[in-house]
Fold these 2 entries.
Entry 1:
Amino acid sequence: MRPVDRGRWRHGLFAVYLIVCLGAVTWPGYPWYGARIRPLVLGLPWSLAWLVGWIVLTFFVVATYEWTRPRLDGDGDR
Amino acid sequence: MSDTWGVATVCVVYLALSLGVGLWPARRSSPTAAGFVAGDRTLGLVLLYFITGATIFSSFAFLGAPGWAYSRGAAAFYILAYGALGMIPFYFCGPGAARVGRAFGYVTQAEMVADRFKKPSIAFVMAVVSVVAFVPYLALQIQGAGKVLEVVTDGFLPQRVGGALVYSVVLIYVLRSGVLGVGWTNTFQGILMIGLAWGLGLYLPYKLYGGVGPMFEQIAAQRPELLVPPGLTSSGEPWNWGGFTTAVLVSILGFSFWPHAFMKAFTARDEKTIRRTVVLYPTFQIFLVPVFLMGFCGVLFATAPAEPDQILPHLLTNLDLPAIVVGLFCAGALAASMSSGDAMAHAAGSIAVRDGLVTGLGVRLDEEQQRSWIRVAIVLTLVAAYVLAFLYRGSLVALLLFAYGPIVQFAPIVLATLFWRKASANGVLWGLIAGTVTTTFFAIYGDLRPFNLHAGILGLGPNILLLIGLSLVSGRAPDPHEARFVAHARGGWRPNS
């Protein structure tokens, strides 16, 4: 029972993250929070730093999703 | 320019190294179509990481992207925006395709789809769409390579000669070594691209403006419109969010399903390798940031190039830089062109023969004959692309945008094939045809598009409608082969279940 629940949470949270991320890097999130020049972050304008931030965050989220993957029999991994 | 010989020497050394790296693995794969096309399914994480990364970033990354940043400002950021999520579909589809590929012996995307439904016409349609999409894409790579050589040698090597020279090298190593030649050269070229982008991307703002921050302070003061998304259109008008958002969506959907990228799932050693490639992909993709920085360097530069795409060669040849720096940049741009061009030529040949001739038209060829025919098809594809590159008078970029729409139509088809039990042959075939026709229509009559949406997105409507509608209407009994196929794709297959 428990592993199934954990799997559902894992998939559900990941799906929510993907939708939030897509909304943040396009309309409506990008025009709301990302479409300005200042403050400069590490010398980059906010509009560019905003996207870099989401890419870095996505890297950690996908990595976590991968590392928490339940081991299934016969999924072909060696 | 007195340093022309120095620059040319660096380029020649780079081409010789590419050739060497590409020929080296020639004898390591079996003399079969599976060996030539899929490397006998033995590729590990390093090769797969560089193949996917370097294949995706074409000469557009070194010429087009800085050109966009320079002329259209924040509009260029859409490439970063889609990159954040672009590989996610592959995280799920790649391992599924690898499992069915291993179980049933597929090495291309279309033969996988066609074989699930036992419908050869699907493979034929997909093969035609793929090859038609590849030729202009490849022609752009050849033009890009030729142009770089022409500019940095001060016209000594005309674009046609440069393009022919660079793509002869590609032809030799792809013919000799198949996908392993593509893989090893992409590793070499990928390292070169990343290293040069970061090196030059941080060095140029420092040399011209005293740093990245001071550069953006000056641009913010003089050209603020360039730094606020969605940026500008190519004619300098403000772009709109409908265009920006659907460009991102289309790119995310098209990204994983471009046949030359998708079929790399069949080359992987195992599924974990594919998933980890997706996890690591952003580390490659972030190299677009220094690429943009190079483009922004041109904004306040004293002189302007003839075309925005030439901003980087223009900057480098007009700044008093050592020949080795200019030569290395040139090698990086060639690497970007070649690492995509080789994968496309290889895929186009493989698809024309495996999907078009063998699966689609039912021509009987044994494994060695296929391998020979694939080589012939690769030569023909490159020749066609070369002719298009230098004889076609219209805009190749427009042709490419045109080709992107039909490729996006592969996304629902491939997803349904892998994971949806109820998908039917007619749903897949007619969905694909309806989507391709619709997207082609809106590509030609661009003014009829509602809300400026991308033609590829508009094609998805009829595509998904027919795919789901016809599949549900057919309601036929589940076929044991298909049940086995979907079970493999979903990862739940047990030999005795």
Entry 2:
Amino acid sequence: MNTGEILGVVVASVLLLIVVGVFFIRRPGREETSLVVDRPAPAVSLSSRLAKTRNALSGRLSGLFGGPLNDAFWDQLEETLIAADIGPVTSARIVDQVKASKPVDGQAARTSLRDEMVAGLTGPDRSFHMTTRPSVILVVGVNGTGKTTSIAKLARRLQHEEKRVVLGAADTFRAGAIDQLRMWADRLGVEFVDAETGADPASVAYRAIERARATDADVVIVDTAGRLHNNKNLMEQLAKVVRVLEREAGEIDNVMLVVDATTGQNGIVQAEAFVGVAPVNGIILTKMDGTAKGGVVAAIEHETGVPVRFIGVGESMDDLVPFEPAAFVDALLD
Amino acid sequence: MFDNLTNRFSDVFRQISGKGKIREQDLDEVLRDVRMALLEADVNVGVAGNLLRRVRERALGSEVQQSLTPGQQIIKVVNEELIQTLGSDTAELAKPTKPPLIISMVGLQGSGKTTSAGKLAKQLKDAGKRPILVAADLQRPAAIEQLIVLGERVGVPVYSEQKSKPARLVKAALKEADRMGNDVVIIDTAGRLQIDKELMDELADVSKVAQPDETLLVVDAMTGQVAVDVAQGFLDRIRVTGIVMSKLDGDARGGAAISVREVTGCPIKFAGVGEGLDQFEVFHPERMASRILGMGDVLTLIEKAETAFDEEEAERTAEKMARNEFDLDDFLDQMSKLRKMGPLKQLLGMIPGASAALAGADVDEADLSRVEAIIRSMTAAERSNPNLIDKSRKQRIARGSGSTTQAVTALLKQFGQAKQMMSAVMSGGAMPSLEALQNPGAFGGGVATKQRPVQTGPVRGQNRVKGKKKKKK
């Protein structure tokens, strides 16, 4: 850099600082307009104000569809969709589509809305793939979505279909994860491939397939550690697990991404990241027994083409049911 | 953490920074975009609505309209409202009159209670406390084992019973803590849905027995709209005293922090920022709000600037610039103040947009010293009137500063152009675009770079950072 250029940068900096300084520093009544506000938030009033918002939100759709089709109607409709985590952009698009269908009254709008949304979720093949033997199911997702519990429920379903199942404890990171899966395996009475904490997950996955072959099992389900999708190292580790499984099994029949229904718009980024490192071909939407609507999966299906296969609806082992678009949409608009 | 939202806001506000008076129509357009950004960031739709209503009222009020820079003022209003919602207090844990400090961790399944309990135990242990962890999650298989392993890792005892009821277990754990002289008791409760009556009853029982000084609601940073319901559900049954935002090392926009904070009114006390047990931080609302707003580290910058410059001086300098009287002495003075604030590169990084726009401007502090040396080699008369500097003076200055006459010439030429620009900016024009700043030629007669006209009029759209109209007294 020559002297002139340096001077330029310095002048630019001084100028920026002066502008920043003049703008922010010399301001009469700074205490009031200062960027740093010291007063504590008025907790009570905020909370009560929000309680009102909440009450206004819940159950207003039923009343909504009986009312006139004015601006307030469309605004409320949009807000309801947003409140279900469908996301502001998709919600606006859906509302526009419903508007374009020129409904004559609220009921017609509701029908149109339901149809639009169900249509948006219809198409992808939601059946379970079983092409290899043993057929491999790899379960992935961010931390705390319910992977291990979902595996127990999946194993239970497969048992009902008279399949012999092996569970592989490839979450060797989270403290207690291996114990958790072992307890489920014991309760279900299925084969369990143990691991040491800190062991290489790919080697656990390999041993799980070996065990499935040795015991003539139909399905091997491999648990993995929860990982944030922006953690490069952990995503590479997952890619390695995928490589090993593909090498051993020829193909991973089902890579299930577990998505927590309470997840907001970040779910889309999550799904895209996991699809990027593993051949994800199904989603398990968990914790649908709460008040969360799980609307983000609509956007996930739209963006990644990966269909939701199952939803988790409770604490018991039988609480994993196939995803049905119509039922899902009805619950969402409830 | 809040990068995505930050980017959104940057886009939105770039459109209005420096516009003149705000018309209601413009305001609505901007607020619509702000709303979109908030919603995409998972701020609850009701919370976002409340926030925007408050911003709108204030934006249409005299405070903004009478301001000479309404665009800036709106940014401030939004920022203030965000800070206010996030909470401006960097909250500390309660200090009970008589030990132990009893902390209860509550939340949905998978929100990160057990990990947070382990991290908190480590932090308190490192601070010289003697915590004990209590494994009161009797629901999830192996939850007890998980806590025991965490306890081993951080070197903190864990109280557990295999077959028990949470309330009974907690009572026994408190006795144990008393016996062992533990001054902090951290209770890890089972994850539960806020609408699960049975489990919420159980939690209420535990709270009754434990009488915790702190009940920390652990909220996953990725949580969507439902964060509001969850917080309210817990609040309805137990006294929540604080929030822990977990998984903030993800790339979630983290709007749930705003939602939960507004519903509960409880401070966000901690942030989980990684897999490691020491990755547990105090939550900083102001920083977070400024990030959300795309203000970069402007707050830090302002703090630094406030220590280096005082109001009157900043004003005097601005006046001087406006009257085209800013001389090399002033420049030297400003530069040394600037350097006291830290490395220039770091400072530039704090100005939103500047780091990107000035990319490639790899400022070496040694180069700055060279410029300083050249100016210091001038006489007082030369510094206040650079026109005096002829060829022989240049040679003397070059010798005195150990540089070349070409360097001295370049510096003088640049300074002359820069002075003109400063004058233009300060006397009613606007900031030059950063694109112009990036190209040293924008200062006119750049040595090896192409010429660019000095911008004097208001700069349109994309590249401007701050609009500043001259403030009349």
